[in-house]
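Box 3.1 A note on notation
Throughout this textbook, protein chains are presented in two layers. The first layer is the amino acid sequence; the second is a token string describing backbone geometry. Keep the layers aligned when reading.
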Amino acid sequence: MKKLNFIYSLMAALVLGVAFTSCSNDDNTTTPPKELPTGITYKARNYAHAWLNSNTLLIMSTDGDHKKVIWTKLNTNDMSILDQGTADIKVAEGYNVLTTSGIVAYRKSDNKVFYFYYNKQETSGSSKTTNEPYFRIAVLNAETMAVEKEIINKEAAQMTGGAYGELLQQTVFFDENDNLYISAFTGKAGQLLRIKKGEFDFEAGYNAFPGAKGKLLTVQYLGNGKALAYAGDGSGTSIDSYAYFYSIVDLNAKTVTRLQYNGADLPVSGGSFSQRSCVNTKENKAYFAIDPKDAQPQVYVYDIPTGNVTEGVKIAEGYYFEQIRFFEKSGNYDLTVCTEKHGGMNRDKSHITLSVKSISDASTTIDFKGQGAEITDYTMESIYDDMFMYQVPNSNDRYSKLLFSSDSKMNVMQEQKFI
């Protein structure tokens, strides 16, 4: 009888357009399929994410009208949709829309999802947009996605990357004690805020990036209370401004030390959007790239235990660093460059990605001419794990799982249509 009811359910799904998902249990039984709401769709470049475990990816954003917060859980092993829905987060009184994507973080110690967002008076993209004074923190149960708390913070006006999540650069991390850190800003000054383990609001008065003159664009945890940061120096704010520098942040002392090579400050770099750095935990090294104004683009290597900086590979002139990604399983570094100044959100520029095994040899210059894969139907803005990258492509109709192979061809591994 149960089997017959299941067949009837599937027939109803075909007739009514209702989606179901089922899962296999450890004892080889199958959990009855769960009915999923349909019509949850995302736009390329406009969503946030967090990993709930090694193969469960949570995606969140606002809907097309920016009135509701939507979410989807993907099984990245087969790209199946595990669950999806709408969070109980509403536009606050006196405002008209929510921020485009928000920022998402998952705290493992208590199974909580943190969704950072704010309300706006004008429609998204308007030059007259007026935001509420401080952004908000919604705390959700990761299992049910029920909203358990909603807090208006008092430490910063906006979080970094509210329009596009962490698709271009990392702005959130956890330390060994499961304390949460997030890049934010008030006015033009960047801040690095902290939510302690077991707490839900920011620690009052804590800012690990004091005295900032520009926004804090990227933060990556290095271990032992240290983070690599990429920030503006205040002399320019456009994508192409040569006004951005790398530093080491001491999260306990709340100090910022600009990185040097041979006793001199490293040159400032062009390019505000995107992330030109990665961490290889096996080597205990961080790699970061600089696009200087009057010199060849260069990778530098930061030795985490000693703090020593050495030179890495260069790239040929005429190309501009956009992203460096390290994939632990393959040991490959994916270098994405732009051929016409710097790319960034909604800039119609040509991007090429080349997959290489090493970027530490200072005697090597990489020329992308005739090499790599040009990104066309897909986007540079992606989610990464230790092997693959995931994204909503320009078609705005599906989730894609991609891999750049050793010959730098972009391979579409699996795709899942929106339902």
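Residues 1-18, 24-30 have pLDDT under 50 and may be disordered. The first helix runs from residue 2 to 16.
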